[in-house]
Amino acid sequence: MPQVAIVTDSTSSIPEQLIESLGIHWVPYYVHRGTEVLRDLVTVQRESFYKWLPAANELPKTASPGPGDYVKMYQDLYEQGAEEIVSIHITSKGSGAYQAAMAAKDMILEAIPKLRVEVIDTLNVSMCSGWMVIEAARASQLGKKLEDIVALVKKMIPVTRMIQTADTLKYLYMGGRIGRAKHLLGSLLNIKPLIGMEDGVIVALGTARSRKDAYRRIVELVEKAVGPQASIKVAYVHAAAREEALKIKELLDQRLNCVETLISELSPALGVHSGPGTAGVCFYPVKILD
Question: pLDDT, tens digit, for every residue of 145-154?
Answer without folding.
Answer: 999 999 999 9
